[in-house]
Amino acid sequence: MDLHNFKLANRRARRLQASVPRAIAARFDHRSGRIVVDLSPNIAITFVPRQIQGLENAVPSQLNKIEISPSGFGLHFPKLDADVYIPALLEGCLGSKRWIAAQFGRSGGRSRSTAKKRASRANGALGGRPRNATKK
Q1: 64 secondary structure, DSSP code
Q2: Are residues 36 and 44 in contact, defined by beta-carbon separation less than 8 angstroms?
Q3: With CB atoms 3.0 to 4.6 Å apart as the test, which of 55, 89, 103, 123 could cross-link to 49 if both were Cys?
Q4: In CATH, which superfamily holds the domain spanning 3-95?
Q5: Angle at CA of residue 37, ends 76 and 34, nearest 5°
Q6: Are 38 and 80 in contact (CB under 8 A)?
Q7: Distance of alpha carbon 28 from alpha carbon 20, whole angstroms
């Protein structure tokens, strides 16, 4: 990394530190099944682990240990080798674009609307989904 990029990175970090709350404590609340993060100054947020990429399949025993990065912008779950970036969490970004799209697709696939049921029945009456063409 050259000196110019190093200075730019330091400037961005200072702006981030001045404008975004940092984690000062984090724990898994067994009663509610949520992660509780205390932020400075005097803010607390909670979230359900299954809504976060990397934590979606975690069991409570894997969520008991949470490490906070030195900057206060990251949470690390060592039993899962998963990380959560606090600024992204505050912006509502719960995972990569691909992961979020997969979550939406999964929930859409579970839809039981009247239109979807009707289309499914009509498709089944025609013999179901066509088979993929095989290459020769």
Answers
A1: S
A2: yes
A3: 55
A4: Uncharacterised protein PF10387, DUF2442 (3.30.2020.40)
A5: 90
A6: no
A7: 22
pLDDT tens-digit series, residues 30-78: 999 999 999 988 889 899 998 888 898 999 999 999 999 998 989 999 9
Q: What is the largest CA-CA distance in the chain?
A: 68
Sheet containing 43-47: give its strands across: 22-29, 34-40, 43-47
Whole-structure pTM value: 0.61
Burial class (CB in 10 A: 0-12, 13-18, 19+), 84: buried
- SS3 state of residue 35: strand
Please state the domain extents for the chain: 3-95, 96-127
